[in-house]
Amino acid sequence: MKLSKLKIDIAIANSGYSMQELAKRAGVSRQRWNVLTNQKETRPVSAGKIARALGVDVTELLED
User: Fold this and answer.
1) Can you point out the beta strands (E) in 1-64?
2) Distance between CA 40 and CA 35 in Å, rounded?
């Protein structure tokens, strides 16, 4: 799955959570969170973790 870095950044800004809090909500370390949110392609499970932590549907994070 290809995620949009811009859409992820917008969702992070809207969430009001710190990176540490988001990583905890996703069930991953802060370092792993950075890897997941900065890579172009990710597995569906990882995309789901990111979306769940941000409180958005995974389709909102996909590249157009």
Assistant:
1) none
2) 10
